[in-house]
Specification:
It contains 8 helices and 14 strands. By secondary structure, it is an alpha+beta fold. Helix 2 packs parallel to helix 3. Belongs to the HypE family.
Length: about 325
């Protein structure tokens, strides 16, 4: 299970098994989406993702809207305007058709809300006991506007690290539903399409260096991947991290670090330090960025490492999660 968690074990699986097997057939840069240059100034973003969340319906969403929003967001993190999605279902024999119908309805509603078309797909059924309800794979294609250059290798010392809102909400929402936990207030998933927020950032004219949606492995995994790819360090300020009290309480109870808990409707933006206030103003003016704030800075020291300054004046290393803290969270 740890190999599917988006942390250190996932990275090792890619590095030591898949990449050697693919050889020269593998792309030189690996990310949530690939930007493909078709010539004549046309660039497409292409992404694929699979969803196995359990339960299929959770507070604030379902596997249906999660599948659409997740792929839309992967495209948006390259600056692309999402256009078309594919959708493939793997169904366990005995799946209740009314539940499948709810999922399909949620997918259709999410696609309409995001302004994308579901243009091709596939359906397979496996024996009872060979699966677990419904699994969904979605792939997406979008167009990258001219002049937009966003990638994990573009972070530079002095850049500001911004987050669009509260972290850890999706993971806690799914876990509370799955385990029957109550934390005094209802926690709902933050699943949402982020391409509109990205468009607002790009409209400022600021040279946005890196965008990431911190899903599996949370903020910690995303920032570690950026630090490694750009060969820089990242320094967070712990008191500036937007962790809701309900998420903090749940993580304390379960022994989790909120920085390693999944999000499905938040983005991390790495932008030039002198432009941070301008980008924050654009983010907070958007409905999905009202809680945006600066949480850290890219630094030249400790390349490939993320650290957080604590309230006591010390620092702690924010590492990649080793395995799967919360299995089947997306």
């Amino acid at each position: 299970m740890g190999h599917g968690g988006g942390g250190a074990m996932s990275a090792e699986l890619v590095e030591h098994l898949f990449l050697p097997a693919y050889g020269s057939a593998a792309a030189p840069e690996l990310g949530d989406s690939a930007v493909l240059d078709l010539g004549a100034g046309t660039r497409l973003a292409f992404s694929t993702d699979s969803f196995v969340v359990k339960p299929m319906f959770f507070p604030g969403g379902s596997i249906g809207d999660l599948a659409v929003n997740g792929t839309v967001n992967d495209l948006a993190m390259s600056g692309a305007v999402p256009l078309y999605l594919s959708c493939a279902f793997i169904l366990q024999e005995g799946t209740v058709l009314t539940e499948l119908g709810r999922i399909a309805q949620d997918m259709g509603a999410a696609a309409r809300a995001a302004g994308v078309r579901l243009v091709t797909g596939d359906t397979k059924v496996v024996d009872s006991g060979s699966g677990d309800g419904v699994y969904v794979n979605t792939s997406g294609i979008g167009v990258v506007p001219e002049g937009v250059r966003i990638g994990p290798r573009r972070a530079r010392p002095g850049d500001a690290v911004l987050i669009s809102g509260d972290i850890g909400v999706h993971g806690v929402a799914v876990m509370s539903c799955r385990e029957g936990l109550e934390f005094g207030t209802a926690v709902e998933s933050d699943t949402a399409p982020l391409h509109g927020l990205v468009a607002a950032l790009l409209a400022t004219g600021v040279d946005v260096h890196v965008l990431r949606d911190p899903t599996r492995g949370g903020v910690a995994a995303s920032l570690n991947e950026i630090a490694t790819a750009s060969e820089v360090g990242v320094e967070l300020v712990e008191r500036d991290l937007p962790v809701p009290e309900s998420v903090r309480d749940a993580c304390s109870l379960l022994g989790l670090d909120p920085l390693q808990v999944a999000n499905e409707g938040k983005l991390i933006a790495v932008v030039p330090g002198e432009s941070a206030d301008q980008v924050l103003a654009a983010m907070t003016a958007h409905p999905l960025g009202g809680g945006a704030r600066r949480i850290g800075t890219v630094v030249p020291g400790h390349p490939g490492m993320v650290v957080a300054r604590t309230g006591l004046g010390g620092t702690r290393v924010v590492g990649l999660p080793v395995g799967e803290q919360l299995p089947r969270i997306c």
